Amino acid sequence: MLVAWNGFGMRLAWRLVVPMDRFGGIEGPNSSTTTNSTRTTPSPFDEFTPSSSLYDYSSSSSSSSWFSAHKTIVIGAGVGVIIVLAIIIVICCKCRKKRTKEMTGSTTPQAPFVELQDDAPPPPMQNPPPQVKNPPPAPPKRQSSTIATTETTNSSFRQSHGSNTKSREESSFRGSVPSEALDMCGLDVHRIPSAEIKLVRSLAQGAYGEVWLADYFGRPVAAKRLLPGKNSIDEVQKFIWEIKLVSKIECPFIVEFVGVAWTRPVDMMLLTEFMERGDLRSVLQQNAIERTFTWQHKVVCALHIAEALVYLHTMDPKIIHRDLKSRNVLLNSAFEAKVTDFGIARETDDIQTMTAGIGTYRWMAPEVLQDGHYTDTADIFSFGVILAELDVEVLPYSDLRNDRGNPYTDAAIMGLVIAGQLKPSFSPECPRWFHDLGLQCLQIDPSARPSAMQVAYQIRSRLQAST
């Protein structure tokens, strides 16, 4: 292509420097005076030989003046053509180099560079596992149908993934659960930097979690987190749903939600207000020695628990605690009680009933022990057990004996409770109204039990009458 351009440029320059007539000869200033009779048509193959008849510069002064006047124009035109050709040649060379570079880059793949950080999730695998057709359901939302929070959602999660998939996920993510695998939507609003939380001492430990006394800018708070060995995807997600549920509860008789802190999902901490006297079970055990927890304190404690149930059962949809017991009732320095631990609490509506036996069996209702179908009245039965516990100050059923004089076994207690043949005991010193209210709550027929609002009204009326 460059050779063709050069040849074209040279022919154009020669054409401009030496004007040609329309017959192929050299056109002079007097060529128009040449007659047709004396002109012969030259062959394009004849050798070009200038002759004096064609170039007669001395014959006329106009010939000399014409050449002088156009000499500068002819030279300038030739130089301009050369410059244009040079520019075209440079542009062509650059375009050719650019195409060559692009072709080379497209045929040589570059290996991706992924910068890994300590807290960042691992990069995606080259061959990701097949997607599950039924992903885990969304977190609990308020709607007309039953909305699962902890156990049922986790059950659906396990069913959709299968036991083998779950074991692989737990072994793969144990100790390092990626945030992409969890539903953490909405937690950022309540997030507190982990650097602002100072753990002081351990307060309690259960099967899945532990509670620490922590300091948050001089304010004592309770920090609940999962145990190191309980950090699978399923367990972390269950804990996140508990945090979400607590975060939307605002009741003076339920522990106040402070916030949530984490650096990784497995390190997540639920921060709530700190209750100085600990749980009700510990207070009752200490009261055998100190005798500071009077009957007045006990009635007020029962009222606060009932008010908490009123709040939960009147929400839309209502919330069933499902694990109401003395360990999940906390008291402050003034013996004011607040309900805590919503790890297995669940939202529902008035139509659907709950399934699966959840909670500690000594406080569980017969229908929960028997077939797992129950409503919010199951919390009322658990409240009745707490009323008996407030009276005798011992573990429920621990003061009862069988025909042989031995304590009942766990299996025997559950069987007799289901049959309606065993109930927690009350002491002879218990106020009559308190005893009767407890028996109403402990009815084997769920429909015969009073509602939380009725219970709270009775206790409040008694307190007002005694003052």
Describe the structure.
Residues 29-44 have a biased composition (Low complexity). The structure is a single chain. This protein is α+β, with helices and mostly antiparallel strands. Among the domains are: 179-273, Phosphorylase Kinase, domain 1; 278-466, Transferase(Phosphotransferase), domain 1 (Orthogonal Bundle). It is built from eleven helices and ten strands. It has helices at 2-17, 61-107, 151-173, 233-247, 280-290, 295-313, 366-370, 377-392, 410-418, 432-441, 452-466; strands at 197-205, 209-216, 219-226, 257-261, 269-273, 278-279, 319-320, 329-331, 337-339, 346-347. The strands form three sheets. The protein has a five-stranded antiparallel β-sheet, with helices on one face. Strands 6-8-9 form a three-stranded antiparallel β-sheet. Helix 1 (2-17) packs antiparallel against helix 2, helix 6 packs antiparallel against helix 11 (452-466) and helix 8 (377-392) packs antiparallel against helix 10.
What labels would you give this structure?
transmembrane; metal-binding; 11 helices; elongated; ATP-binding; metal ion binding; 467 residues; alpha+beta; disordered N terminus; five-stranded antiparallel beta sheet; Phosphorylase Kinase, domain 1; Transferase(Phosphotransferase), domain 1; magnesium; three-stranded antiparallel beta sheet
Can you summarize this structure?
The chain has 467 residues and is α+β, with helices and mostly antiparallel strands. It is built from 11 helices and 10 strands.
Topology:
Blueprint (H helix, E strand, L loop, with lengths): L1 H16 L43 H47 L43 H23 L23 E9 L3 E8 L2 E8 L6 H15 L9 E5 L7 E5 L4 E2 H11 L4 H19 L5 E2 L8 E3 L5 E3 L6 E2 L18 H5 L6 H16 L17 H9 L13 H10 L10 H15 L1
Antiparallel strand pairs: 1-2, 2-3, 3-5, 4-5, 6-8, 7-10, 8-9
Helix pairs in contact: 1-2, 3-4, 6-8, 6-11, 8-10
